[in-house]
Amino acid sequence: MPRSVEPRLNSSVNTLFQAVGLGLAVWWTSWPPVVLADAPAAATTPATNESVAPPPGTLASQGYHLFLLNCAHCHGTDARGDEGPDLHGIVKSDEHIAALIKNGKKGEMPKFGAKLTDPDISALIAFVRSLKD
């Protein structure tokens, strides 16, 4: 490429990059801000506005926090079910629920035995028991 063309080409490329960069900046700033939080303060059922958050300081409240972090993405933040089943009014034994949490169910629910401790699982069970139909 002749040297006389190179400065004009570089100038055109720089102008193009500046225009694209400005366009991306305008596009990026047009998006609403994203607010990150550990977990919602209280989850509600949209249809009834019923809060499923147990009273603070209880074992069920600890279980609720663990539920939001580990289970809500499948069971819904209100535990009414989404990909996973509704957890209100569960009649299975605590031992059965603990085994299901620890070992999962092939093709349906992942294992949490390596991630959650026995006290964590007890707290989750307390939360599930606090859910009424």
What does this structure look like?
There is one protein chain. By secondary structure, the protein is an all-alpha fold. Helix content is 47%, strand content 0%. The longest helix has 24 residues, at 6-29. The protein is elongated and about 85 Å long. The chain starts with 5 loop residues before the first helix and ends with a helix. The model is unreliable at 42-49 (pLDDT under 50).
Keywords:
133 residues, mainly alpha, Cytochrome Bc1 Complex, Chain D, domain 2, 47% helix, 0% strand, elongated
Q: Cα-atom Rg, whole angstroms? A: 26 Å
Distance between the termini: 77 Å
The CATH H-level homologous superfamily of the domain at 59-130: Cytochrome c-like domain
What is the correct CATH architecture of the domain at 59-130? Orthogonal Bundle
Reading the helices and strands in chain order gives HHHHH
User: How much strand content do the residues show?
Assistant: under 5%
The global form is elongated
Helix content: 40-55%
Q: Look up the CATH topology of the domain at 59-130.
A: Cytochrome Bc1 Complex, Chain D, domain 2
What would you call the structural class?
mainly alpha
Overall pLDDT confidence: 80
> Can you identify the CATH class of the domain at 59-130?
Mainly Alpha
- Helical stretch tally: 5
Low-confidence segments:
42-49
Counted beta strands? 0
Query: How would a crystallographer describe the biggest sheet?
Result: none
